Amino acid sequence: MNLTVRDTLLQKATDLKIIPTLNGIINKVFHILGNKNSSFNDLCDVVQYDQAISSKIISIANSAYYSRGVEIFHLQRAMLTIGFEEIKGIVTALLFMDNILKKLKLKEEDLFSLWKHSIEVACAAKILSERMLVEDPPKAYTVSLLHDIGKIVFYLGVENYGALLRDAEMNRQDVSVLEKQRFGIDHQEAGYIISVKWKFPEDFAYAIRYHHEKGDTGKYVSLVNMVKAADQFFLSPGDVNTTEGLILQKERGRITREMEKIINFLQLV
Length: 269
What we know:
Blueprint (H helix, E strand, L loop, with lengths): L2 H13 L4 H14 L6 H8 L3 H11 L13 H8 L1 H18 L6 H25 L4 H10 L4 H7 L3 H10 L4 H9 L3 H11 L4 H9 L10 H15 L7 H8 L1 H14 L4
């Protein structure tokens, strides 16, 4: 085990910062998204103070997908037009893409690769949760969007980390095992450190920490399993020998449409 590399990556995970002015908003939004009792007004009260997110939501409400022929200028009306559950997914995606990933100045190809996989897994986990009646679908979506946040540390601290991911995928190897072998730490552990520092809900942090682990993952097993199954579906698309895999295979078209909608909203292509 290379302790020097491990110590460096641990330090990067501990020191990782978001723009200070946005930190409070991000913490509050993730708290709201992790609370099943949160309301439309709770989210609106926080989002209204972020100009970038507010303007994007208004723009989406006026898009062809939602527009009813009347132009919308106000945030609350825009959020009502889109719907609370949709808004939660959009806000999470905006925070993750614009206020976390882009601010860290990852390489464009690395940024898109991390983003695309996160969206794939989030859409799949949400649909799987709906079909299996397990966990709250918006929560499954939000956690899954964040499940690989620890990879940021490796992208920033390991040269050619993107190549390691591509090799792992090509050879159908578990990247977390490779990370532990080479660096003494994996993206699950790094992600857990970040999630605790950024005050994510406990079950979010738990799913981030254990989404590659095999067998019973304990306290939040149903949520972890949603993330794990969705993640594995895209890492090994040919392996559909589980109930979750079969469901996701049948829902592949719907997952693709959900992804395309989000990518279109956020103008990522």
